[in-house]
């Protein structure tokens, strides 16, 4: 038996380790064939960030099982539906009594070993990547009788939580979800706000409603952003060279990725120049449709959710088509004008990724933007999805 402490925060000598990265690495490990979890809350924001690893487990014949709570209106219909699509034995735990279902246990096992993660993190974006959370990983070797006994105790817990013959445990079925939705106990992702601070204006301080004396005692913390929403791709070393001439369009892709150049990242606050980047022609259908609306060039202005170290902010971007200069010189460029706040999140020498996600229907704004640094553990997977090259930069869609 080996124990590993996983602190998802930095304080003094304590160094942050993201729980989501630990889970992704463990689930994707070929030694494991089963992933079980029991959590109080589950959102698509958390599931999507594990989905690439879950896909790799399923593709090698693995199984997924989850026992999920629905208290406090945080777990969503979409999250439960998605879990039901990849698992035949997942369940919902609920009681009308005056207490809530509140475990956070993740068990990943194979033929000879297992790892159990027990802590405070729910299966949500911030729970897995941003909140102040603490977990303990217990590595179990089945050749040890003590380890095997500990594993069997955890397995017994899951056997009960996944057994729908018990009161308060129900299989994930359409009829069950409908009954819970009719009772107002579960809602859609668009209706049920993500736990944590709400989306704020770019000019609003996260502590704007906190008295100054309290803010002085407990000042704001800058926390690294979570990986982009949408499926984190499973990393595979590139097998083919970059494609210089991509398809005409990217179709119905949900995520656009592009590596920023040093020039892109140079347009920072206090530096002359417009903070905008060129968008490949083949990717233009991913963005809002351009039109002539009184300005000189066809364009579209739209709001985005920008993930920042201080929280999620609403920003306004402009996409426009620059056909030719006043002199008649043909340009033929699509340009995405962001703002200095966005560029400031990137490394000044370039190399980081601009990741733009389309959020599920009903969200406002529709687009979410993350600047993914080269230091993020998920960077190799995302840059590996950039199979095209345009204007000397790598880009791709997933």
What do these coordinates show?
The chain is of the alpha+beta class. The chain folds into 2 domains: 195 residues, 2-Layer Sandwich (Endonuclease, Chain A), CATH 3.30.870; 143 residues, At1g16640 B3 domain. 20% of the residues lie in helices and 28% in strands. It has 10 helices and 18 strands. Strands 9, 10, 11, 12, 13, 14, 15, 16, 17 and 18 form a 10-stranded mixed β-sheet that branches. An 8-stranded mixed β-sheet has the order 1-7-6-5-2-3-4-8, sandwiched between helices. The chain is globular, with a radius of gyration of 23 Å. The two termini are 39 Å apart.
Task: List the topology elements.
Blueprint: E1 2-8, H1 19-27, E2 34-39, H2 44-47, H3 51-59, E3 63-69, H4 77-86, E4 91-93, E5 104-109, E6 113-119, H5 125-129, E7 133-141, H6 145-161, E8 169-171, H7 174-182, E9 200-201, H8 212-217, E10 255-259, E11 276-279, E12 299-308, E13 311-324, E14 330-337, H9 340-343, E15 353-358, E16 367-372, H10 379-384, E17 388-390, E18 393-397
Parallel strand pairs: 2-3, 3-4, 9-13, 12-16
Antiparallel strand pairs: 1-7, 2-5, 4-8, 5-6, 6-7, 10-15, 10-18, 11-14, 12-13, 13-14, 15-16, 17-18
């Amino acid at each position: 038996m080996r124990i590993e402490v996983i602190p998802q925060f930095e304080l003094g000598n304590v160094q942050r380790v993201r729980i989501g990265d630990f889970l992704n690495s463990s689930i994707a490990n070929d030694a494991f064939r089963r992933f079980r979890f029991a959590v109080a809350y589950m959102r698509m924001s958390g599931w999507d960030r594990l989905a690439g690893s879950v896909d790799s487990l399923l593709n090698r014949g693995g199984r997924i099982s989850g026992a999920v709570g629905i208290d406090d209106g945080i777990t969503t219909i979409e999250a439960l539906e998605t879990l039901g699509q990849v698992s035949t034995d997942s369940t919902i735990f609920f009681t009308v009594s005056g207490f809530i279902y509140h475990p956070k246990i993740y068990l990943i096992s194979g033929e000879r070993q297992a790892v159990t993660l027990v802590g405070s993190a729910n299966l949500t974006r911030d729970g897995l990547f941003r909140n102040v959370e603490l977990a303990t990983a217990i590595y179990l070797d089945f050749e040890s009788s003590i380890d095997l006994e500990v594993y069997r105790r955890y397995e017994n817990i899951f056997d009960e939580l996944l057994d729908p013959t018990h009161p308060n445990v129900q299989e994930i079925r359409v009829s069950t979800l409908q009954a819970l939705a009719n009772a107002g106990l579960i809602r859609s992702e668009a209706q049920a706000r993500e736990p944590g601070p709400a989306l704020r204006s770019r000019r609003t301080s996260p502590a704007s409603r906190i008295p100054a004396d309290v803010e002085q005692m407990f000042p704001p913390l800058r926390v690294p952003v979570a990986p982009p929403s949408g499926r984190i791709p499973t990393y595979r070393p590139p097998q083919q060279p970059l494609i210089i001439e991509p398809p005409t369009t990217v179709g119905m892709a949900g995520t656009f990725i592009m590596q920023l150049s040093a020039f892109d990242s140079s347009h920072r606050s206090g530096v002359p120049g417009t903070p905008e980047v060129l968008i490949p022609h083949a990717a233009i259908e991913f963005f809002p449709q351009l039109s002539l609306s009184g300005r000189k060039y066809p364009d579209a202005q739209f709001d985005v959710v920008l993930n920042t170290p201080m929280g999620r902010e609403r920003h306004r971007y402009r996409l426009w088509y620059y056909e030719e200069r006043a002199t008649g010189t043909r340009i033929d460029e699509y340009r995405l004008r962001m703002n200095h706040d966005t560029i400031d999140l990137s490394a000044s020498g370039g190399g980081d990724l601009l990741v733009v996600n389309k959020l599920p229907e009903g969200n406002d704004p529709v687009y979410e933007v993350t600047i993914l640094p080269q230091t993020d553990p998920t960077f190799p997977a995302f840059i590996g999805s950039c199979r095209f090259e345009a204007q000397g930069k790598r880009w791709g869609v997933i």
